[in-house]
UniProtKB/TrEMBL annotation:
Family, as annotated: Belongs to the peptidase M10A family. Matrix metalloproteinases (MMPs) subfamily.
Leader sequence segment: 1-26
Chief location: membrane
Binding annotation for Ca(2+) 3: 223-224, 243, 246
Compartments, as annotated in UniProt: Cell membrane
GO molecular function: metalloendopeptidase activity; zinc ion binding
Protein name listed in UniProt: Metalloendoproteinase 1-MMP
UniProt KW Protease keyword: yes
Binding-site residues for Zn(2+) 1, renumbered to this chain: 216, 218, 231, 241
Length: 359
């Protein structure tokens, strides 16, 4: 027999740690859209949807008709003819199918129930463009607007954009806003043979950008803080609207608000719509429909690039290898972080046993 904290005991525990390393999990176990966020960072109307948590087929909860209107707004549900133009508060078969389609589209576990992950996704701030429906043509991941509309301007193509002279925000300088949009447009220009040029004449620009509040005349009213952040229309419409009520930020480190929204992330997403892309079901893609407050998503992923290049072709100078290298580097970083955590834990345990031996 050897002492509990003797030399051989220490050696045994050390070998166990080395031969049976701790499991290493990827950095993103839970998709961004189901990360639970605090109540003050949700749209007030959508926050009321928490009371429908755990509802399933057969449930009858007062006010569920409002949740059904949400599903109708984003293309998952239509009002049955036998309901006289109004939704009921019953969790019926049609609504169950809508919930399952929503879960499938947003990469959630397909349960057909309003589980916590689904409710959290529903309440997350998002783009106002519909996810599915007769106006959307879906592929395995990325999607297009019906008919696959695109800009037709010859090749090489140059699209002009301008900012509204009367519908802007005053707490971010125009020069900062211009810089943000220049970077956002350049990301798309790097992968397709389309150039973007800012001009002063708002009325003659191909893409018209402005900040609007509430009902602003396009049939898609904004709803205040969070909720719908922005929306843009398919080619060759060119309208690009952001909700003026949001707390927009160009540097999240300088803006402390819990409801701050990264302008560049939203700009990059909406430009995808302007070019003809609808929403993607790939959580990491720029064209995924939701964006949490105080988060940033500006780098085009493989799904974004494949989708837009199917419409416009590839920029001759673009190489997929560079995009893959970038994504691989990110994945390697996650693996290195896991390994570092494993060895940090192992060293801590070894140190603990050494101290026990000394004392």
């Amino acid at each position: 027999m050897f002492p509990l904290f003797g030399y051989y005991s220490f050696l045994f525990f050390f070998l166990v740690l080395c031969c049976f390393p701790l499991p290493c999990f990827p950095a993103r176990i839970i998709p961004e859209q189901i990360t639970v966020i605090t109540t003050d960072t949700r749209n007030a109307t959508w926050h009321n949807f928490t009371r429908f948590k755990d509802a399933e087929k057969g449930s009858h909860i007062s006010g569920m008709s409002e949740l059904k209107k949400y599903f109708q707004r984003f293309g998952y549900l239509s009002i049955p003819d036998n309901q006289n133009g109004n939704f009921t508060d019953v969790f019926d078969t049609q609504f169950e199918s809508a919930v399952m389609l929503y879960q499938q589209k947003l990469g959630l576990p397909v349960t057909g129930k309003l589980d916590s992950g689904t409710i959290s996704a529903i309440m997350s701030p998002r783009c106002g463009v519909s996810d599915t429906g007769p106006r959307i043509h879906s592929t395995k991941h990325f999607a297009y607007f019906y008919g696959r509309p695109r800009w037709e301007r010859g090749s090489p193509m140059t699209l002009t954009y301008a900012f509204s002279p009367s519908n802007m925000i005053d707490y971010i300088s125009l020069s900062e806003i211009r810089t943000v949009f220049e970077r956002a447009f350049s990301r798309w220009a790097l992968v397709i043979p389309v150039n973007f040029a800012e001009i002063e004449d708002y009325e003659s620009a191909n893409i018209k950008i402005g900040f609007f509040r509430g009902d602003h005349g396009d049939g898609e009213p904004f709803d205040g803080v969070l909720g719908v952040l922005a929306h843009a229309f398919s080619p060759e419409n060119g309208r690009f609207h952001l909700d003026e009520a949001e707390t927009w930020a160009v540097d999240l480190e300088k803006v402390k608000s819990k409801v701050a929204v990264d302008l560049e992330s939203v700009a990059t997403h909406e430009i995808g719509h302007v070019l003809g892309l609808a929403h993607s079901s790939v959580t990491e893609a720029v064209m995924y429909p939701s964006l949490r407050p105080r988060s940033r998503k500006v780098d085009l992923k493989l799904d974004d690039v494949e989708g837009v290049q199917a419409l416009y072709g590839s920029n001759p100078n673009f190489k997929f290898s560079s995009l893959l290298e970038s994504e691989n580097s990110s994945n390697k970083g996650n693996v290195l972080n896991c390994r570092s955590s494993k060895w940090t834990f192992s060293l801590a345990v070894v140190s603990f046993f050494l101290l026990l031996m000394i004392t």
